[in-house]
Automatic annotation (TrEMBL):
Ranges where the Alpha-L-rhamnosidase C-terminal domain occurs: 798-872
EC number(s) recorded for this UniProt protein: 3.2.1.40
Name of the protein described by the UniProt record: alpha-L-rhamnosidase
Matching Pfam families: Bac_rhamnosid (PF05592), Bac_rhamnosid6H (PF17389), Bac_rhamnosid_C (PF17390), Bac_rhamnosid_N (PF08531), Ig_Rha78A_N (PF25788)
Length: 910
């Protein structure tokens, strides 16, 4: 008994403490301890950790100060106790923030059980430079020949830190892509900075804490700049120097000394530069040539003789008015892959296989004689004979040429390029290639992984793997279409269709917030949206339905997923301008004629002389009109969300007008859709353009088409994302499963069966005889068709939004006899949401986890309340409906079980 009492006394305090809520995962503008945000009113968020069920926040207190001790004299905002359940995007409303200042903040909260948390661990955010006048540095340009393919330039400046340093920050950006160094060490771990924006209107700068890198006395700061997107070749039109033909640097090192004084080391005319360094050629498409014999040892350290370097030019003609602090996540080296095979092709090409189509570059370790050049080429696939295949790269050479200096083991990785590849071909390597000689370095925007989906079907798990890797490979500062050929552009349609799936897999809130500002910046005066953003195609102000709609669909999606009302407020003028453009084009007819340039891009079609089945073609004007209606409706809802009731009514009326015209022009009284294609039915049903009385008929016609094709799809970029959704929403989840699990072309699993490790651009990028589709447009890393991932999360495991940001959650799993289990997790702004189901021994087991400060409605499919057990006990407080049993839940971890049986390939409760 004594031992039992001692055990209880030891455990009870821990149990009591566990009941108290803890505020954790503090973020400012989505980011953990961000440095360099240039928002005067950043928004603060936190998550609540508690083991107690049904926990809601009732009040919070936030304190923001300029020191971590939160002394009253340093406090700039103390909310006091605020009665509120808000824990996401609470807007800073204290004393006006200052530039280049670190602010610490903490929060404590009161929950609905009467528990008050302790203060959270402090977090911080650091401001950037709010005003152009905060910049004391000048734009500088080293002497350069400004040719199309020239070496990277190098710059340096020696200076003295005269007193004891308390803090030091570097504020920097470039025309081109840059690397910074201080006393020989690379500053920061970002790559390909400053990223890609509409440079003439928005140029990002980065902020680095370099306090520990400064040395007493003499120091040297240096930079290398490559062509990047600013100057290099872009698109497939032999275009280069789109924003300018001269590389330039803006760099400001701000030092604060212990005595309170400050000093700025600025880029100015005292800097020196050269273009005689080792990076002799670089380009996004070209790759990189590096001659290690031209390395200048110690060029970025003190004591280097820079007598041969030339003074830089001060470029007073370059404005600072376009500078913006980074609002997205940086591009980092995320992972490394080792070779899974090293072999020679039948024709003798030395090939290394890394097992995964990826975006990044190679790190090579090599030793050999000076002057020896190793050439590395990159490819996504091998041809049917096992030979290296690069025809689909078009004019992108994607090649590394490294010339050895002959000084023992040399390690190299490129500086100013990236490639999309799984395989490399190596020529000129001295000696035998071993696995330790080559490493593939994976790079992408460093978005936190937020979602995972898995199930009992290994091919579906591989599909999910491919979807995630497609996102990794193409979310590189902007959402690109592909990472390998002479394109890699921000295609607006691709981003639009995938944005919802992207937001399940990773936290894309800040990523899209940044890119959507570039969409607005590139928007045409008449409200049209370019095909690509940044707009390097300059296609005479052309806009296409489904592509231009990114201006409306993505902000609305981000608001729904993250409860980010600011993105609606920021993008609303752009959203409205786009819809107003269509209103003007359509006129009183409400039909947007000529609005679809690309149609249902890359939809399945049989051979041109094959009339045995419909080819899936959907009328472009019908597509344009459907998207016109959808964007008008979303704009109306966005207006309502931000309190603009006049526009809410105005654009809802527009939607109703378009719907009426759509029915009149594109529907029969029997529910047939003009063109009778899968995409036609999908868009009409998804966008609520079908009268309620005809929805069941239209859905049945869609199913009829699917079944007539032996459970194959015929959709392209615009129909595919919604295909399974529409089937499930109209009672045909079994058909959606049949489509998902189809293994023959055209289907999602056909590429998986053919060995894909990412999502393909075409349904049949590699044909059944192992030959290729059109080499002019055949990417093997193209995420658009991966948009089916949204359905897998939302319907297979049932993770749906009840209120923006998952403040109220709808859990509606839809099991199938084709799986024995499925599980998904998603990290909401409130915490982790989990839903999993498993059928075993005639029992359905459903396990859910609901984050604190949210509530949920759970539908137990095909269940009868009297048969259900919750955590092993009879269920209480549930109601039966046509779909099963529905119960309202607060936060917590729950398990439900009830009898389950399969009847004629359908599932039902006993």
């Amino acid at each position: 008994m004594k031992h039992i009492l001692l055990f209880l006394f030891a455990v009870l305090p821990a149990v009591c403490l566990a009941q108290k809520p803890v505020a954790e995962s503090l973020t400012a503008e989505y980011l953990t301890n961000p440095v360099g945000i240039d928002m005067s009113h950043p928004r603060l968020s936190w998550k609540i950790n508690t083991t107690q069920r049904n926990t809601l926040q009732q009040a919070y207190t936030i304190v923001v100060a300029t020191d971590a001790s939160f002394s009253s004299s340093k406090t700039v905002w103390n909310t006091g106790k605020v009665a509120s359940d808000s824990s996401v995007f609470v807007t800073y409303s204290g004393v006006a923030l200052k530039s280049a200042t670190r602010y610490y903040w903490r929060v404590k909260l009161l929950d609905n059980h009467g528990n008050t948390s302790a203060w959270s661990k402090p977090a911080y955010f650091e401001t950037g430079l709010f005003n152009t006048t905060d910049w004391t540095a000048s734009w500088v340009q080293p002497k350069q020949d400004s040719s199309r393919k020239m070496p990277a330039v190098m710059l340096r400046k020696q200076f003295s830190a005269t007193k004891k340093v308390v803090s030091a920050r570097v504020y920097a950006t470039a025309h081109g892509v840059y690397e910074l160094y201080l006393n020989g060490g690379k500053i920061g771990n970002q790559v390909l900075t400053p990223g890609w924006t509409e440079y003439k209107k928005r140029l990002q700068y980065q902020v680095y804490d370099v306090t520990t890198m400064l040395q007493p006395g003499d120091n040297v700061i240096g930079a290398m700049i490559g062509d990047g997107w600013f100057k290099g070749t872009l698109a497939y039109m032999n275009n280069w120097g789109f924003w300018g033909k001269n590389l330039a640097l803006l760099c400001q090192l701000q030092i604060t000394y212990a005595d309170g004084t400050t000093e700025n080391i600025n880029s100015d005319g005292s800097w020196k530069g050269t273009q005689n360094g080792p990076v002799t050629l670089n380009g996004i498409y070209d790759g990189e040539n590096y001659d290690a014999r031209k390395e200048m040892t110690g060029w970025n350290k003190k004591g280097f003789n820079d007598a041969a370097w030339l003074p830089v030019d001060v470029a007073n003609n370059i404005t600072k008015n376009t500078l913006v602090g980074v609002q997205s996540v940086p591009v980092h080296q995320i992972a490394e892959l080792k070779p899974i095979a090293i072999f020679k092709s039948p024709k003798g090409t030395q090939i290394i296989d890394f097992g995964q189509d990826m975006t990044g570059w190679i790190r090579m370790k090599v030793s050999g004689p000076a002057g020896k050049t190793v050439t590395i080429r990159h490819a996504e696939v091998l041809d049917k004979f096992g030979e290296f295949y690069t025809a689909n790269l078009r004019n992108a050479t994607a090649t590394i040429n490294y010339t050895l200096k002959g000084d023992g083991v040399e390690t190299f990785e490129p500086h100013f390029t990236f490639m999309g590849f799984r395989y490399i071909a190596v020529e000129g390597f001295p000696g035998e290639i071993k696995p330790e000689n080559f490493t593939a370095v994976v790079i992408h925007s460093d978005m936190a992984v937020t979602g995972q989906f898995t199930c009992s079907d290994t091919m579906i798990n591989k599909l999910q793997h491919n979807i995630q890797w497609g996102q990794k490979g193409n979310f590189l500062d902007i959402p690109t279409d592909c990472p390998q050929r002479d394109e890699r552009l921000g295609w607006t349609g691709d981003a639009q269709v995938f944005s919802r799936t992207a937001a399940f897999n990773m936290n894309v809130g800040p990523f899209f917030a940044k890119w959507m500002k570039d969409v607005a910046a590139d928007q045409f005066p008449d409200g049209g949206v370019p095909f690509v953003v940044p707009d390097v195609l300059q296609t005479n102000r052309a806009t296409s339905a489904g592509w231009g709609d990114v201006a409306v669909i993505v902000p609305w999606t981000m608001y729904q997923v993250y409860a980010d009302k600011r993105i609606l407020q920021t993008q609303y003028p752009s959203m409205k301008a786009y819809v107003d453009k269509i209103i003007n084009k359509a006129g009183d007819s409400y039909i947007w004629r000529g609005g679809s340039v690309f149609g249902d891009w890359l939809f399945y079609r049989p051979g041109i002389y094959d009339f045995s089945e419909p080819n899936g073609y959907t009328n472009p004007d019908m597509i344009a009109t459907a998207f016109y209606a959808y964007s008008a409706k979303l704009l109306s809802q966005a207006a309502g969300a931000i309190g603009n009731t006049a526009d809410e009514k105005k654009y809802n009326d527009v939607f109703e007008g378009v719907k009426k015209a759509f029915i009149h022009n594109y529907m029969t009284p029997t529910g047939r859709i003009f063109a009778d294609s899968q995409t036609g039915y999908v868009l009409a049903l998804k966008f609520n353009l079908v009268p309620d009385s005809l929805k069941s008929r239209a859905a049945a016609y869609l199913v009829e088409d699917v079944r007539s094709r032996n459970n194959h799809l015929s959709t392209g970029f615009l129909g595919t994302p919604y295909l399974c959704q529409v089937l499930s929403q109209n009672g045909y989840t079994n058909v959606a499963y049949d489509l998902l699990l189809q293994k023959t072309y055209p289907s999602w699993l056909y590429p998986v069966k053919m060995g894909a490790t990412t999502i393909w651009e075409r349904w049949d990028g590699i044909k059944t005889d192992s030959t290729f589709q059109d080499k002019g447009m055949n990417s093997f890393n193209h995420y658009s068709y991966g948009a089916v991932g949204d359905w897998m999360y939302q319907h297979v495991t049932g993770l749906q939004i009840g209120k923006p940001g998952y403040k109220y959650i709808l859990l509606k799993p839809e099991p199938s006899s084709k799986f024995t289990f499925a599980k998904a997790t998603f990290e909401t702004m409130y915490g982790q949401l989990l839903s999993e189901w498993e059928v075993k021994d005639g029992t359905m087991r459903i396990h859910v986890k609901i984050p604190a400060n949210t509530t949920a409605g759970l539908t137990l499919p095909q269940a009868h309340a009297e048969d259900v057990k919750q955590d092993g006990k009879p269920l209480a407080g549930a109601s039966n409906d046509a779909n099963g049993t529905t119960i309202q839940l607060g936060s917590g971890d729950y398990t439900f079980s009830y009898p389950w049986v399969v009847v004629k390939d359908k599932v039902t409760a006993k």
